[in-house]
Amino acid sequence: MIVRLFASVRKAYGDKTVEVEASELTLAVLMDRLAQRIEGIADSVSRGAVLMAVNRELVDPIGKDRDRMVHSGDEIALMPPLAGG
Amino acid sequence: MLTDRDRERYKRQLLAWTEDQQHRLKDARVLIAGAGGLGSPLAMYLAVAGVGHIRVVDRDAVDLSNLNRQTLHTEGDIGRLKTESAVEALRDLNRDIHVEGVTRIMDDGTIDELVDGHDIIVDCTDNFPVRYVLNRKAVRSGLPMVHGGIRGFLGQLTFIAPGKGPCLACIFKQAPEPESIPVFGATPGVIGALQATEVIKYLTGVGDLLIGRLLIYDGEAMEFQNIKIERDPGCVECRAK
Ligand SMILES: [Zn+2]
After folding, report:
1. Given an 8 Å threshold on Cβ–Cβ distance, is A56 in contact with B225?
2. Distance from the alpha carbon of residue A17 to the mean position of ligand 1, in angstroms
3. CATH superfamily of A2-79
4. Class of domain B4-228
5. pLDDT tier at B1, thresholds 50, 70, 90
C-alpha cells in the first residue's frame, strides 16, 4: 500500500511516498504503521495539522473514519495545509 | 451602464459573458487580503477584467526577496509600502476602476472595518492565523471567500460559501507548523489566476464554484486533484450557522 506524501510531510520523511506492507487494513492501523515510520505524524494528524485523503476524499483516520478499510490500490495522501501566499 | 470605452476595452471578454454580467463586475467590491505572491496575479486579473472597486490590504513594505514572485511590485518599489506600489501598478493597468490600498494589520479588531461593504473576500495571505480571522468574518457576515495557499510546487484552492459548504476551519482545524516556506513565482501565479477565475465566476454567475471541493495543484507531477470536503458539524467557527 502506497501513501503519497506532500510538502512538509515529504520533507520530514525524505521521500515522495511511503510503502506500508499490507493489502488491506483499517485507517487506525494504517496510522499506527505510519507513526512508526514518520516522526510525529499521528500527533499532527490528530491535531488536524496534517490532512489525510483517501480516493480524493478527506478522512479522519483517528476519529470517525478509524475503522474504515483501505486496500492496496486506494489513493492515499498525507498533506499539510499550504500556508504560503 | 457600460460606456463605449468599456465596450471597447472589454470587447474580447464580452464574447465570454454579457454586458449585464460585465456590469456586475463593474459594480462589484472585492476585498483582497494580501498584496504578495497570490495577491499580485489575483489583483491584476481582477483589475484588467474591470472589477469596479478593489481594496488591497497589506501591512508590509516591498523587499528585494519579494520580487521573485510578487509581480505587482518592481525594483523601484523596494522600501515602499506594498499597498502604495500595488495601487499604482493596478491603476496603470486600468484607470477606469477604483483601487484603494489600506495598510493595516488584519485581526479580529480591525476586520469589520476593513471588510464591511465588500461583496467577496479573497484570501491571498501568507499565514493561517490571519486566514482564520478572514474566515471568522466571512462566516459571521455570510460573505463568500476564495481561499488560496501555496508552498513550493504545490497549491490549494477552495471557495468558501458560508452556510452552503465547509468553512476554512471545517477543513483545516489547525495551522501547519511555522516554517520558512519555499516559493517561486509561477506557483502563486497559477493559484492567483484560479482565484481570479472563481471571483469572476461568482460575480458574473458563470459556471460552478469550487464549493465543497479542495483543489490541489501539484506542479512537480503536473496534476490537479479535486478533494471532496464537507462541513464539520462540530466546527468551532460555522457550527449552527
Ligand atoms: Zn466550519
Report:
1. yes
2. 30
3. Beta-grasp domain (3.10.20.30)
4. alpha beta
5. confident
What is the pLDDT averaged over residues B18-32? 98
The C-alpha atoms of residue B145 and residue B198 are separated, in whole angstroms, by: 10
Separation of alpha carbons B48 and B22, rounded Å:
12
Which positions 130-189 of B are in contact with A (Cβ < 8 Å)?
148-152, 154-156, 171-177, 179, 181-183, 188
CB contact under 8 A, B175 and A7: no
Phi-psi region of A68 (alpha: psi -120 to 50; beta: other; left: phi over 0): beta
Domain ranges of chain B: 4-228
Q: Which residues of A touch B219 (CB under 8 A)?
A: none
What residue type is assigned to position B162 of the chain? P
- Tens digit of each residue's pLDDT (9 = 90 or more) over B135-187: 999 999 999 999 999 999 999 999 999 999 999 999 999 888 888 999 999 99
Residues of chain B contacting A82 with CB distance shorter than 8 Å: 149-151, 154-156, 176
| Inter-chain CB proximity A83 and B175 less than 8 Å | yes
